[in-house]
């Protein structure tokens, strides 16, 4: 499903998140939403991509990170 109606899209995402949360908690799990859905423009999208790229680089394995076999 695609939509250009921002309010409808946000409502659909919120409903999906709530459904997923209910399923997870019903099975004894926990779920925490770090950031609620919101409409973003190109600038925010580019900032998010840059942040995700930076985090991916920080999380890559670096020589010496893995335990050594003795």
Short description:
By secondary structure, the protein is mainly alpha-helical. It is 56% helix and 0% strand. The protein is flat, with a radius of gyration of 18 Å.
Structural overview:
With 70 residues, the protein is mainly α. The protein has one domain (6-59). The protein is 56% helix and 0% strand. The protein has two helices and no strands. The protein has helices at residues 6-26, 42-59. It is flat, with a radius of gyration of 18 Å. It starts with 5 loop residues before the first helix and ends in an 11-residue tail after the last helix.
Secondary-structure-derived class:
mainly alpha
Main beta sheet, described?
none
Give the tally of structural domains.
1
Which ranges are low-confidence, i.e. pLDDT below 50, for 5 or more consecutive residues? none
Shape: flat
Number of strands: 0
Output the radius of gyration. Answer: 18 Å
- How are helices and strands ordered from N to C? HH
- In helices, the fraction of residues equals 55-70%
How far do the termini sit from each other? 54 Å
Q: pLDDT average, as an integer? A: 85
Strand percentage: under 5%
Q: What is the number of helices?
A: 2
Keyphrases for this structure?
2 helices; 70 residues; mainly alpha; single chain; flat
In terms of topology, how is this protein built?
Elements: H1 6-26, H2 42-59
């Amino acid at each position: 499903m695609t939509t250009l109606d921002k309010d409808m899209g946000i409502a659909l995402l919120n409903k999906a998140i709530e459904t997923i949360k209910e399923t997870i908690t019903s099975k004894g799990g926990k779920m925490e939403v770090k950031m609620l859905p919101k409409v973003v423009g190109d600038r925010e999208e580019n900032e998010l991509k840059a942040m995700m790229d930076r985090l991916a680089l920080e999380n890559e394995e670096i020589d010496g990170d893995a335990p050594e076999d003795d």
